[in-house]
Amino acid sequence: MQTISLDELIALDRLISDEERLVREVTRRLVAERYLSRAGELFEKAEFPMDMIEAMGELGLLGMNLQGYGCAGMSNVAYGLAMEELEYGDSGLRSFASVQGSLCMYPIHRWGSEEQKQKYLPKMARGELVGCFGLTEPNAGSDPGAMTTRAVSDGDGYVLNGNKMWITNSPIADVAVVWAKLDGDEPSDIRGFLVEAGTKGYSAPEQHHKMSLRASRTGEISLEDVRLPKDAILPAARGLGAPLSCLNQARFGIAFGAVGAARACFDEALQYAKGRVTFGRPIAAKQLIQAQLADMAEDIALSELALVHYARLKDEGKLSPYMVSMMKRKSVAMALQAARRSRSILGANGITVDYASIRHAMNLESVYTYEGTHEVHTLIVGRGLTGENAF
Amino acid sequence: MKILCCIKQVPEKDARIRVASDGAWIVEEGISWAISECDRYAVEAALRLKESIGGEVCVLSVGDDKASKGIKEALAMGCDRAIHVQTDAVARADAVTIAKVIARAAKDEQFEAVFCGVQSDDLGYNAVAPAVAELLGARHMQIVLSVEPVGESALKVSHELDNNLIETAEISLPAVLGVQTGIYDVRYASLKGIMSAGSKPQTRYSLEDLGLSEAELAPKVTIESLAVPERTHQAEMIEGDPATMAHTLVEKLKTQAKVL
Prior knowledge:
The complex is a heterodimer. Chain A is an alpha+beta fold.
């Protein structure tokens, strides 16, 4: 029987350049050779593979869509495809790259001083320095303007106090981009500060007992009278729009990443369905299974094709935040549904980490919520369509 | 050292191969292509030699647009320049014909070391490297496991022989080496390498440029037909002690399979 693969259904190669295709292939090979065989074990043990930082740095995946300062300067299509391949391995792996590149390197690259760029970006691109992004607080998630972390001008520097929570990479970070209100209480007072690990009063205790993103380090950031020099502030980042702009960068990569997770689940479900026999026939020959596989393939194909279109718009500087919200919202919801479908097709086997689907399903619960919850993105798109603010 | 590395694009390992309507080739439409696995190791071996002794690595491929994609990846991995013999006329060519094209494209360059994969993932003739060596008048070793420079004029090479024997010997230059898989961790093309690959020099030849006549390109081997192996369920477990099992197996090979 003649068959057609998911890649053939999507026929993406017609839409991407040789360079973008090579980035996808190299990242795919990295994940296949260095990550997939231990993905379940890392998740079970709640370990992040530190060796992958160096590997991703050597390839140039960290901050890969930034120009100069040791960054590869690739297109946003290439960036998206790389994030997709990383998340085919695990959302934790992609989360590391998203945080490093889009949430930490990006603000330094966009708003940092020349000295800050020279000091941090080349080492972060190589994976020699790890960054994190401190915005969310225990009582300020979807409403970051309500943050209570404060910076106060003090002589020739600043003093920071406050707490950040759910910070990917904070326990292993060398430098944190911390957002705080400077000498005021308004969202417009929000500024970004570069806080290096080891600074007196700074700590980043790990958050344990996660059932999702287990192969990713998540922590708090505690700031107790942290004294920073004048040159620790990102000079050109002013107001809430700055951190939100970082989130838009990350959300873009997340949308692609979720497709990678969905693809991993689809591949697993298809392979399993072909081999699993019930009532004398492979379950792949059952209509109920085929309907689920067809739905998954269709969802993945259409998501991927749409994302490449939006990535091209981003390369042209024409991607609006509404589009990014729609991308993230739709893609992650699609992936979560695909993971649940695949888990179901796998039957009882699907609840073990010997298979990837339950791991992806659990990871995607976090992805559904972080970087703007599904609901927040609904409201952003809704506000755009109606002109009414429903927050 | 002036080093040449020959690569071939083949269908990716998980490609869904379908036999074309003429029964003698595959449907190429819709397949993803990649550098043949052995050739990937050949690129790595060539780059490592250059890194240890200096010089340059030129990558060479024969074929249509698919070949240019392989060339770009090899350049992204670190090769310095490329020779692309642009033709879609040799996809089904036998090893000697391909070797003639390679040798003609390389003959004026005076390469000192030529690396090939020991065989390609698709046709697997295992013969291009020795044929290139013959045509270039170079020495040759096949199934190469390691390569070290010995001064400027020789290489110390380990390679597999029959019966699991491994020979280590010096080979004087020029030499053509057929590289085995699995001998190194093959490097990934870095993103910076991918970005810079497009600006590296490429020399493009047509078959006419190389002055190869139709007679020279006439195949020595033609593919009559291709078939996907039929799945059968005829496995039979042979029981008994080793001597009995061996005796039974030989009898079956003689009387049932009729291959002995």
